[in-house]
Design brief:
- With 670 residues, the chain is mainly α.
- It folds into 5 domains: 1-86; 105-133 and 144-192; 202-305; 339-344 and 369-509, no CATH class; 517-668, Methane Monooxygenase Hydroxylase, Chain G, domain 1, CATH 1.20.58.
- Helix content is 76%, strand content 0%.
- The chain has 25 helices and no strands.
- The protein has helices at 2-102, 108-111, 116-132, 135-140, 143-169, 172-182, 188-199, 209-227, 231-256, 263-284, 293-309, 312-334, 346-357, 376-396, 402-431, 445-471, 476-497, 501-516, 536-555, 559-580, 587-605, 610-623, 633-637, 647-654, 663-669.
- α15 packs antiparallel against α16, α15 (402-431) packs parallel to α17 and α20 runs parallel beside α22 (610-623).
């Protein structure tokens, strides 16, 4: 059964295969047939396309031929029509020409006010014809040019009047039409002038003419492009008119009023007016004024201010000189001080140095009554005047003259601030330094130094902030720096001379010691009844020294403080050392001397100078020789602080002991 079933299925599959094969063959035959038909159809279409392409080429050639004929015909028509149009226009002009010859204008174009544009065109052409006629022909028709010229001017005036009326009514379109007609007339420029004049009517009613001018130009800039074909020219002419009429008149009124009577107000007004004019020029730069508007505006500004800027620096220097002298004189008058001439060299300088360094009476020192003759108010006023002068110089000077002018202003500042004020105060302070043997001397020179130092810092700040930007890229820079260096060196020389103030300090300390120190302080009658820790002289000297140290620190800065304090400390040590050498010391007196030196050493710490503290440490160690037991003298002398000292110094201190002459002490020390 399975075999039969299998064989049956195979037979069915064979029948099905045959059926499908026949169907495939039928479809293949049908496909081949359709392919042949499609190929035939494509060939027919290609032939049709070729025929159509040939027809298109023929049509294109025909169209080109026709177009050529049409263009040729158009040229011929134009060649015929143009002379015809010209002939028609010439005929019309001849007709109008005849009317002018007859002296009666009958045409509607001349009598109808609404046709003013056409009449203007005709009159313009007839006017040009009249200008081209030879003189002989012109004489034959003399009545014509007279009548046409009159009509030309009448029509021109009528157009300008129409433009003026339209402008007052605010009719921009009518203004544009009339301006276009007038463009070919000689009176076009007059039309522009009328426009500019009417624009300014009522525009300058406030006090600020510069702001009014800016607003006016802003308004006209929006309108002028809608009216005129050359708006940049019209706007430039308006700006020129504003500068040459309104601004120049305003500037002249403001400056001429004070030019000869009040230099300060004149300079302030000149700076203010020039600044406001340049600011206005900057605002106008945003408008279209032609190709080189920067040069155009610069020339307008120059035309206004050239007569004032030519001698500006001479006025500035003259005013600054007078003003500075007045500020100084007013200050000295307020102090009831007659400024005196103080010698700065030669015999006078030599006498001053000798007087300060010795006790020789070469003439009395100048009593300043505690006045430093330096004023912060004066300095601020001088610096403020100079600052304003630098600002005006920067704005008003020609760039090529700026460094030179700035240097002249700087020289004025040096003359009056540094020489006439600071240097004079230093000279007066030096002359007022008392001699070292003066009693109750008041040392005001350090106050002078302190104020001079503060003032010079302000001077240096103005040099950097206001002068340097004006001269930084010019040869005047090195000249200014050298001048400043010379000033500093000159002042430092005087400050160095003033260090002789230390002699006065030491002299004061000598007076205190001489008045307060008693011989019984270090050799008391009752050795067992000493109640004080240190002597009264020591207390007063230390108090005086501390005040002077503080004054030095407040008066100076930088390395100058350490330099002066070191010199003061060394002299202070020498004074105390020599002072202690004048007395004899008992055991209790020696202890009191050690206490005094310990107090002096505390005072020396305020100097914050290592050398000064070391000197007082050594002095303190030397004072131990006044109280040490004879048997321990050699051990103390060989200690760390005394081992390197000269034996004579050690011996001189040991000799101050009241028991020095005892055989035992002398034997131990030897």
């Amino acid at each position: 059964r399975l075999l039969e079933e299998f064989v049956n299925h195979i037979q069915e599959l064979q029948v099905m295969d045959e059926r499908i094969q026949r169907k495939v063959e039928k479809l293949e035959q049908q496909c081949q047939k359709e392919a042949k038909e499609f190929a035939k159809k494509v060939q027919e279409l290609q032939k049709s396309n070729q025929v159509a392409f040939q027809h298109f080429q023929e049509l294109d050639e025909h169209i080109s031929y026709v177009a050529t004929k049409v263009c040729h015909l158009g040229d011929q028509l134009e060649g015929v029509n143009t002379p015809r149009q010209r002939a028609v226009e010439a005929q019309k002009l001849m007709k109008y020409f005849n009317e002018f010859l007859d002296g009666e204008l009958k045409s509607d174009v001349f009598t109808n006010s609404e046709k003013i544009k056409e009449a203007a065109d005709i009159i313009q052409k007839l006017h040009l014809i009249a200008q081209e006629l030879p003189f002989d022909s012109l004489m034959d028709f003399c009545c014509y040019p007279l009548s046409s010229l009159g009509k030309y001017h009448d029509l021109e005036c009528q157009l300008i009047q129409e433009f003026t009326s339209a402008q007052r009514r605010g009719e921009i379109s009518r203004m544009r039409e009339v301006a276009a007609v007038l463009l070919h007339f000689k009176g076009y420029s007059h039309c522009v002038d009328v426009y500019i004049k009417q624009c300014q009517e009522g525009a300058f009613r406030r006090n600020d003419v510069f702001e009014d001018a800016a607003i006016l130009c802003q308004r006209v800039n929006k309108q002028v492009g809608e009216v005129f074909s050359n708006p940049e020219t019209v706007l430039a002419k308006l700006i020129q008119n504003i500068f040459e009429v309104k601004l120049q008149s305003y500037v002249k009124d403001q400056l001429e009023e004070h030019r000869k009577s009040d230099a300060e107000q004149y300079l302030k007004n000149l700076y203010d007016l020039y600044t406001r004019t340049t600011n206005l020029s900057s605002k106008l730069m945003e408008f279209n004024l032609g190709t080189d508007k920067q040069t155009f505006l610069s020339k307008l500004i120059k035309s206004i201010f050239i007569s004032y800027l030519e001698n500006y620096i001479e006025v500035e220097i003259g005013y600054l000189k007078n003003r500075s002298a007045m500020i100084l004189q007013r200050y000295y008058d307020s102090k009831n001080h007659q400024k005196r001439s103080i010698g700065t060299g030669g015999i006078q300088d030599l006498k001053e140095r000798i007087r300060q360094r010795t006790n020789l009476p070469l003439g009395p020192s100048i009593d300043t009554h505690g006045e430093t003759f330096l004023s912060q108010e004066v300095v601020v006023n001088l610096l403020q005047e100079t600052k304003q002068a630098f600002e005006r110089c920067h704005r008003l000077s020609d760039p090529s003259d700026l460094p030179k002018n700035a240097f002249r202003i700087f020289s004025m500042l040096v003359e009056f601030l540094c020489t006439e004020h600071i240097d004079y105060a230093l000279e007066t302070g030096l002359a007022g330094i008392p001699s070292s043997d003066s009693k109750n001397a008041n040392l005001y020179f350090l106050d002078v130094v302190h104020q001079a130092n503060t003032i010079f810092h302000l001077f240096d700040k103005q040099f950097n902030d206001h002068l340097m930007p004006l001269i930084s890229s010019s040869p005047k820079l090195s000249e200014c720096l050298q001048k400043k260096k010379d000033i500093i060196e000159q002042m430092e020389v005087k400050l160095d001379m003033g260090i002789d103030t230390l002699n006065c300090m030491i002299g004061q300390m000598k007076h205190i010691l001489a008045a307060e120190q008693k011989k019984t302080d270090f050799k008391p009658e009752d050795e067992n009844n000493v109640l004080i820790q240190y002597t009264n002289a020591c207390v007063k000297v230390c108090g005086y020294v501390r005040k002077q140290v503080e004054k030095v620190r407040n008066s100076m800065d930088g390395k100058n403080v350490d330099t002066v304090l070191m010199e003061f400390g060394v002299r202070f040590h020498r004074l105390i050392y020599e002072h202690l050498q004048q007395y004899s010391y008992s055991c209790m007196g020696g202890m009191l001397a050690i206490c005094d030196v310990a107090e002096y050493r505390k005072c020396a710490k305020d100097f914050k100078i290592a050398l000064v503290l070391q000197l007082f440490d050594t002095l303190h160690a030397l004072c131990n020789l006044l109280v040490v037991a004879p048997d321990n003298l050699k051990q103390v002398c060989s200690g760390e602080q005394l081992a390197n000292l000269d034996k004579n110094i050690l011996h001189s201190f040991v000799q101050l002991r009241v028991d020095y002459r005892s055989a035992r002490l002398a034997r131990h020390f030897s």
